[in-house]
Amino acid sequence: MQRIFAFFSQRATTLFFPIALILYDFAAYLSTDLIQPGIINVVRDFNADVSLAPAAVSLYLAGGMALQWLLGPLSDRIGRRPVLIAGALIFTLACAATLFTTSMTQFLVARFVQGTSICFIATVGYVTVQEAFGQTKAIKLMAVITSIVLVAPVIGPLSGAALMHFVHWKFLFAIIAAMGLIAFVGLLLAMPETVQRGAVPFSARGVLRDFRDVFRNRVFLFGAATLSLSYIPMMSWVAVSPVILIDAGGMTTSQFAWAQAPVFGAVIVANMVVVRFVKDPTQPSFIWRAVPVQLSGLAVLIAGNLLWPHVWLWSVLGTSLYAFGIGMIFPTLFRFTLFSNNLPKGTVSASLNMVILTVMAVSVEIGRWLWFNGGRISFHLLAVVAGIAVVFTLAALLKRVRQHEATTLATES
């Protein structure tokens, strides 16, 4: 009987837990992507200024940063399971609350609370995957999770645009709330526990000490810089593209949705390439081969917009090519940053996500300002500067990772 129970317990960990996490993550993405084609409608329904449209993304990101300081150390001490399950419930309730909003302010507050899902998923959920599986399997599983979840930015705008021909935009959040509820039940039934509860007492001094140690670690600093800078071209485009393509470009919501598909489809293809064809995604030679792809995408972004400034194709094509390059190595960079040290993983993940989300939220606001005050070229230069900086931080990260691995081998021998 014990063997049967152990078999089904392991089966739940390897199959049903990732499915529940994917559904939670997928719903969190949809809360932005499904409504993206209709965000102008939201603004108009509430008689608000169109410049507030990107704030629905930046406040979502701010919500994703708000609880990082607490959830990482908390999950290190009381366990990953209760923290992630609570997060799924909070997200579900926040999506349901959107149905009752009557002003842009209330809508943005709901978006902020929905954004806390990033805290729970990235800080607790992804760490649990990394702890429950070995290095190569965890990297490839994260690539699979990312690929499936990133279907949301591809089908989300298309589905949202289609649904809004028949239903009010608030109904979209009802769909997302239902998905969140199913994910909550799935995590409740299948999520494993990967830390020993109560092994470390929860105290303000202990939490501050852990955060201090994390931000003194060179691998973490260069990893956080590489990951956060890598996100800037993608997130600035996601936040500002409705204004660029719909408000200024005159696209319909359906046209806008199709224009977004290549960007996120490129990330999905990149992750599938890693899962299917790359034997060891941690090899520096493989990582460096992805860098020219990213840089060529940024070159297309600028050159195309300089030569044909009124053709939006170059913005989409350049961003898509960049997305393919970064998609191939992102899971590996996350693994390096998280595990190339001996620090508490929940605190490391929380610190990493605070840095990433801060940079993303600031970059969205900078991108919005550049678009409204400097135009398309100024806006795209933000992506180029970030992409070039990534090359230098990546070189420093890989050097520190090699040093850590050499030290670890010397200690073990």
TrEMBL record:
Annotated membrane topology: Multi-pass membrane protein
Taxonomic superkingdom: Bacteria
Record key words, sorted: Cell membrane, Membrane, Transmembrane, Transmembrane helix
Keyword Metal-binding: no
InterPro entries (UniProt xref): MFS, MFS_dom, MFS_trans_sf, Sugar_transporter_CS
Transmembrane portions of the chain: 12-32, 52-71, 83-102, 108-129, 141-165, 171-190, 219-244, 256-274, 286-308, 314-338, 350-371, 377-398
Major facilitator superfamily (MFS) profile domain span: 17-401
Keyword flag S-adenosyl-L-methionine: no
Main location: membrane
A Pfam cross-reference name: MFS_1
Protein name (record): Multidrug efflux MFS transporter MdtM
Species for this entry: Citrobacter meridianamericanus
